[in-house]
Prior knowledge:
The protein has about 350 residues and is an all-alpha fold. It has one domain. It has 15 helices and 4 strands. It has helices at about 1-10, 10-30, 45-65, 75-95, 110-115, 130-155, 160-175, 205-230, 230-240, 245-250, 255-280, 290-300, 310-325, 330-345, 350-360, and strands at about 190, 195, 200, 280. α3 crosses α13, α12 (about 290-300) crosses α13 and α12 crosses α14 (about 330-345). The mean pLDDT is about 90.
Amino acid sequence: xxxxxxxKADRGGTIMLSLLALIxxxxxxxxxxxxxxxxxxxxxxxxxxxxxxxxFAMLAIAVDLAWGYLGILSLGHGAFFALGGYAMGMYLMRQxxxxxxxxxxxxxxxxxxxxxxxxxxxWHGFQWFWFALLMVxxxxxxxxxxxxxxxxxSRVTGVYLSIMTQALTYALLLAFFRNEMGxxxxxxxxxxxxxxxxxxxxxxxxxxxxxxxxxALGLGYLSCLYVTRSRLGKLCTxxxxxxxxxxxxxxxxxxxxxxxxxFSAILAGIAGALYVxxxxxxxxxxxxxxxxIEMVIWVAVGxxxxxxxxxxxxxxxxxxxxxxxxxxxxxxxxxxxxxxVLVTLFLPQGITxxxxxxxVNQ
Length: 362
């Protein structure tokens, strides 16, 4: 009942969740039940692209929770996203078995190519789906917990914290590029066959992944909404606006930051795990600094401190990216930079902030 009250009080979120429920029902129907000759048919490629956008929207919510409500401008959420993706990718690689190019039932193809003699210890257990899901949560969560514990207790804030998160991501990028790390090096993990025994090439499996992404986005949004509208959420806002004053009146600011930052990292890891089986690959490029910067731009464009604005920004920017990289591949980075500058100058509250101003004026 409390969640229903929160949803009713959140007009933008209500509209977003309603549209999400609508596309979760209509897209699979248009893909599986409507003939390909019909103009209402949605191709599997388009559905997979939408599923990828939903994963990005969940990632944007994670960034908005840390940045919009707590004031932590993280330029390292790409690391948590990629780690969740690698955990899922390792499970998918273990499912290939003897169907790989080299026919080795235990070692992935890249390990056979590099003359590895045995499976590394950290790959054990990934033949089980439940273990992979556990790692999707634990690996990003523990990294965020360790990083946050040292950073927040040292009272590192502002641009210095942003630089540290960016440095963390870049360090992981360099590490995962190395072949001896055992994660596929530059090529990463790919050539996945199935998940839970279902072929990843089947339309029904693609529909299942799309629905799972939509459900995860909805649950992620509701969990963040619950946090932000609770007493903890009010405390987060107080820390964002007046950290020293909040600490002075007796609150353990570092504990609040640590909890929210870790929870945000876990959401990013789950988004990465849903992203990998839909795109069919995970490589160190997901750790790239530009990827984490793009996530911040999604939230800035949509509007900070709204959650549904982060979803809006992620969907709009990624649709524009898909269109521009196909129509004008050399212009995308310039367009992205121009978009960030324009939003900063003319829409400091993002698109949702502009809409809210219009409602107030009316």
